[in-house]
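Hi U.,

Before I forget, here's the chain from the pilot set. I'm dumping it here mostly so it's searchable later in email.
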Amino acid sequence: MSDALKALLIESDQLARVLELTAEELGVCIALDLNTKRELKEAEEYLAQAEAERIAEAVTRAKVEKAGPLAHVAQSSPAFRSAVDTVVKEARQNGLAPLHRRVTELRTAADEAQIAREQVSVRFSAMKRAADLRSAMLRTLSS
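Structure:
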């Protein structure tokens, strides 16, 4: 067996090991990406529900007590939408602040997990193409 063929075999074996490790890393990244997105969706739904409750409370207060940012504002007016936005903003800054902060953190984590997944996926594809090329070279040399 020639030195060139031995070197190619050693290189191919090393490439196969790296490809296997990259495949494992890709699996971890996929799981992290999916779990983070699921957790983000749940947190966003919970935040939306909590915000809806705050809006409902403000609407009720405006109707019953004639007080609060929604008082004396027609529900069909643009001012009502603006007042609702104010209610949500205040809720996010006060009682819902920890939940809003968590959603923001999860959005960042989800973006980072997706980027990591894409980067490892690109690296895996490149390694796979290199492994396929080595395989073709070995088949040609062994014929």
